[in-house]
Structure formats: structure tokens, C-alpha cells
Automatic annotation (TrEMBL):
This is 3-phosphoshikimate 1-carboxyvinyltransferase. Keywords: Amino-acid biosynthesis, Aromatic amino acid biosynthesis, Cytoplasm, Transferase. The active site is at residue 326. Pfam families: EPSP_synthase (PF00275). InterPro entries: Enolpyruvate_Tfrase_dom, Enolpyruvate_Tfrase_sf, EPSP_synthase, EPSP_synthase_CS, RNA3'P_cycl/enolpyr_Trfase_a/b. Residues 17-430 form the Enolpyruvate transferase domain. Its main location: cytoplasm. Its EC number is 2.5.1.19.
Length: 438
């Protein structure tokens, strides 16, 4: 297939002939891998990442850090060569060029790192990356002492003129459009001369578990972080300046990418085991245990991992997803197959994700015969009998996996550009057909 054909190619989503019964080894977490790479690059000694996710977003992160002078070498992990990265921090260098693709983590976490480099770092990416909000990071970095050239829209493309150090200190931001603004400033904060104090002053802040993930991972490499939860002021996070340790970290499976496989058990009345499901985690995907149980399944966390079992019935749900927005496409797909209506709330910011996810889900489910309406901050989904057709994906990995869930229950669904799942889960089609025993 010629490279461009992948964008228009149609993948016949497998229809499930019966209940699935499978063990699915889900690759590492995108959010943990990309935080671990940044923290290891900023450390004062080498570190290891074991079982890192290797996907478009994480390879872009690794490539960008390498471009700024960081060593990231293939190492030997628990499963042999190629299963680990050894990260060798070095003085951060410019000039460099960073391709962010359409990775929120890369476009938001790296400009603060670039501000610590000793020269200009140019950031560019996919057309969609120009539309995703970055103003919180750009404005904050300027307040903290960085020089940035952009076109004034608060978005990519831009150049950060690193001068080898950043003063840091207190800064106010409105992170209501992305929690990643807060995470970005905290991750590099220990390396700023004064550390950083981030005060969120906007309306509701989405994706709080991802901010907790940032704080937890910072603390695990020796950073001192004060948070609202540790007795600080509401909406204020403070990072003390200091050296970061090089750690040996094994990356957890990506629980948000486990979603389509758990959904398969739910919609087919089957059973799926996801090995290595962590007993304690900050990943938002852990909320699936509760959400998919309410939608009709049951789960058990055993020494082998998470066993999720469908009952044969799928129920609608009324749920606020503001903390776990990235789960919305998969929940919407299950809701379209349920026996009662659903209301998904608290996710207006999804309009600025990989695509406008609220518009895309509404259009694509309705074109298969569904009845979805957009609300100010989410979706109303009234299940209808669906029919086959093309499910467009808008270069959004989670649209592709959402379409695959529907395809299990509805014959003749064809997914456009299933290869877009490579953003976070390059093996998705193989894992999916493997789960179905094909
Ligand atoms: O920090 C992270 O790793 C992420 C935070 C969330 O971003 P938003 O707060 O922009 O939704 C989430 O949706 C994204 O998939 C990953
Ligand atoms: C919103 C997402 O990604 P990003 O990290 O690009 O924001 C996502 O993975 O659902």
C-alpha cells in the first residue's frame, strides 16, 4: 500500500460471532512513558525505562529529546533486547527541531524543556497540532523568563530560544482546556532556578488523574511537590528546585488502551483478562472498572491481572467524564449498543483533542443509524438498531477503536485509516483479531 493510501483505506471491523474469551497483553502507557522520558532526560544521572510504549507519540518524544542532546539507547529489559530504554541525560542543546506530530504530551511537555536548552528549538507538527491549545504553556513560560517566537495565536508552530536556564517562580494559568498545561510546567519545574508555583485560575480543570500522575512521578524521582491534596491551596501546585534521580522504572500497561478489549467482553457477554493491571495507579483508565461495571459487566482484580466479564446485557449510563475524558469515545461506542440511553457530561474540552471528538462521535454513530446529540459539554446517546457503513476516524486513534467496538456487534462496519491507532497502540488490528481468535 502506498503511504497515503493508509488514510483512506477501509478496514473491515471484525464482527464477533460469539462471546470473546481472551487474554490481551496491552502495551505500556503513553502518559507514563512520555512523563518518564522527560523526567529521565532532566535527571542528574542515567535511568532505565522498562517495557516502554513504542508508538508514534512516544517515538516522537524520544526523537525530540535525542534532538536536544539526550542519549536514549536500546537496552535489555525483562523480555530481552529492545524491551527497555536507557536514558543518558546530557546538557540540553539547541539548535534543534522537534516534530510533535499530534501528540499533546510532546507539544506541551517539551517547550519548558527547550527553555532549558542552550539554543533555539523549533516546534512543528501535524496540521491538527496548529489548532490544539498551547497558550497556557507559551504565556506561562514567558512569565517565567523564556523567549518564544510564535505567530501570536497561542499555538504551534513556534521557536523556544533556550538560554541554558530558566528563572521560574510563580505563574497563573487557565488550564481549563488541557490539564497538560499544568503537567508541562510541573515536570520541568525542579530544573528552574526558583522551581515553579502554578496557580490554575480558569473554570474547571479536566483530567485531574493525569495531574496526579505527574505529581506522583515527580515525587518518585526525588522532587518535592506541594499540592492541593497535600494540604496546599486549592488549584496551586509548587515544585521546589532540585536535582532529579535516575530511576529504573517499569511502565504499566496503558489502561485507556485496554478499554476496547474490556468493551469487547462487555458487548459480547464474554471475558477478557488484561495481565499486569496495576493494583494502585493514577491512570484514568482504572475508572473503567467502575464505569463498565455500571454498564453491565463485572470485574475482578486477581494476581494475574484484571478479569472483566460481560453479562450479556449492556446498560446506558449517566456519567461525568471530566476526570477521564480520553475514555469518552470508547464509552460512547458501548453506549450506542446499550439497552437504555446515556448522558456523557463534563467533556467540552474534547472538541480540541485529536479531532473534535464530540462532533466526530455524533456524526459517525448517526451515520450508522444511531441517535446521538451533542450537548454543551458532552453527548446524549439513545441506542438504535445500527447498520454497517464507513466509520471515519479523523486521524484519531480513539475514534478507530470506538468504531471497532461497534463493529463487534454490527455487521459491515468499515473503519477508515485504522493505522491511525499507531499514535498509541500500533498493534491494535493484530491484538483485536488475536482476541477474536482469528
Ligand atoms: O497528561 C496526559 O498524559 C494526558 C492528559 C489528558 O489531556 P487533556 O487534559 O488535554 O484532556 C488526556 O486526555 C491525554 O490523553 C493524556
Ligand atoms: C487526548 C489524547 O491525546 P494527547 O496526549 O494527544 O492529548 C488521547 O490520547 O486521548
Amino acid at each position: 500500500m502506498a503511504p497515503n493510501d493508509a488514510h483512506t483505506a477501509l478496514w473491515p471491523a471484525p464482527h464477533a460471532s460469539g462471546a470473546v474469551d481472551a487474554t490481551v497483553h496491552v502495551p505500556g502507557s503513553k502518559s507514563v512513558t512520555n512523563r518518564a522520558l522527560v523526567l529521565a532526560a532532566l535527571a542528574s544521572e542515567p535511568g532505565w525505562l522498562r517495557r516502554p510504549l513504542r508508538s508514534r507519540d512516544t517515538l516522537l518524544m524520544a526523537g525530540a529529546l535525542r534532538a536536544m542532546g539526550v542519549g536514549i539507547e536500546e537496552g535489555v529489559g525483562p523480555e530481552g533486547t529492545g524491551e527497555a530504554w536507557r536514558v543518558l541525560p546530557a546538557g540540553l542543546r539547541g539548535p534543534a527541531t522537534v516534530d510533535v506530530g499530534n501528540a499533546g504530551t510532546v507539544m506541551r511537555f517539551l517547550p519548558p524543556v527547550a527553555a532549558l536548552s542552550d539554543g533555539p528549538v523549533r516546534f512543528d507538527g501535524d496540521p491538527r497540532s496548529y489548532e490544539r491549545p498551547l497558550n497556557g504553556v507559551i504565556d506561562a513560560l514567558r512569565v517565567l523568563g523564556a523567549r518564544i517566537d510564535d505567530d501570536g495565536r497561542g499555538a504551534l508552530p513556534l521557536t523556544v530560544h533556550g538560554s541554558g536556564a530558566l528563572e521560574g517562580g510563580p505563574v497563573e494559568i487557565d488550564a481549563s482546556s488541557s490539564s497538560q498545561f499544568v503537567s508541562a510546567l510541573l515536570l520541568s519545574g525542579p530544573r528552574f532556578n526558583q522551581g515553579v508555583e502554578v496557580r490554575h485560575i480558569g473554570s474547571a480543570l479536566p483530567s485531574m488523574p493525569h495531574i496526579r500522575m505527574t505529581v506522583d512521578m515527580l515525587r518518585s524521582v526525588g522532587a518535592q511537590v506541594d499540592t492541593p491534596e497535600s494540604g496546599g491551596e486549592p488549584n496551586v501546585w509548587r515544585v521546589t528546585p532540585g536535582a532529579l534521580l535516575g530511576r529504573d522504572l517499569t511502565i504499566e500497561p496503558d489502561l485507556s488502551n485496554a478499554q476496547p478489549f474490556l468493551a469487547a467482553a462487555l458487548v459480547t457477554g464474554g471475558k477478557v483478562l488484561v495481565p499486569d493491571w496495576p493494583s494502585r495507579t493514577t491512570q484514568p483508565g482504572d475508572r473503567l472498572r467502575e464505569i463498565f461495571t455500571e454498564m453491565g459487566g463485572s470485574c475482578e482484580l486477581t494476581e494475574y491481572g484484571l478479569v472483566f466479564t460481560g453479562s450479556g446485557a449492556v446498560h446506558g449510563i449517566d456519567v461525568d467524564l471530566s476526570e477521564v475524558g480520553e475514555l469518552t469515545p470508547g464509552i460512547a461506542a458501548v453506549a450506542a449498543l446499550a439497552d437504555s440511553p446515556s448522558t456523557l457530561r463534563g467533556v467540552a474540552h474534547l472538541r480540541l483533542h485529536e479531532t473534535d471528538r464530540l462532533a466526530a462521535l455524533t456524526k459517525e454513530i448517526n451515520e450508522l443509524g444511531g441517535d446521538v446529540t451533542e450537548t454543551a459539554d458532552g453527548l446524549h446517546i439513545r441506542p438504535r438498531r445500527l447498520h454497517g457503513g464507513v466509520f471515519h476516524t479523523y486521524e484519531d486513534h480513539r475514534m478507530a477503536t470506538a468504531g471497532a467496538i461497534i463493529g463487534l456487534a454490527v455487521e459491515g462496519v468499515r473503519i477508515e485509516n485504522v493505522a491511525t491507532t499507531a499514535k498509541t497502540l500500533p498493534d491494535f488490528p493484530e491484538l483485536w483479531t488475536g482476541m477474536l481468535g482469528a
